[in-house]
Prior knowledge:
Radius of gyration: 22 Å
Largest sheet: 4 strands, mixed
Distance between the termini: 85 Å
Shape: elongated
Number of strands: 4
Strand content: 15-25%
Amino acid sequence: xxxxxxLLSVVLSLSGCRTWSPIMMEKEKAPIENKLPxxxxxxxxxxxxxxxxxxxxxxxxxEMENNIMSPYGDKFGSAFYSSRTIENKEGFGYxxxxxxxxxxxxxxxxxxxxxxxxxxxxLRILDLKGRLIGKYTGRGSGKAYIALYYGFDWVxxxxxxxxxxxxxxxxxxxxxxxxxxxxxRAELLKTEKEIQSEGE
Length: 200
């Protein structure tokens, strides 16, 4: 009987959670004032490649193409994205408490689980000769609850945390690049002219 009650409670919990979509986070982002010329985008550093999820690299690509650089035309350099986890917290106390009460406590709003993450993103910009002309770092955090009524299901909770942390880190980096954009743009164009003159 207890097993049936436990199974029923878990099913109710999971089916009662909300799913999450990136549309929930969409808001107007202000592009930098003086966009950089088009850059080739990579994950990792100029020395080592980094394996990213498709979603994380897509967030990086969208941020660059929509807010930081022109997505069109010839490439005037490269941008390398890398990230590392600073802190990863999970609220297992919620899960154990819920299990001990056969999940009935969740019917009155107690969370089943909590996911929390902080990452650090580094963005390196190199010219066409491979010279480093800008290095920027930003941190971002995300948090989500798995719960009935107001929480998310397990997959959606982890997706939400990843989106929030990456987007916050990239927003902080965008602000730094905005202050440095005129210098970066000038150096990228200068190197391109150097290469053209060398080829004549």
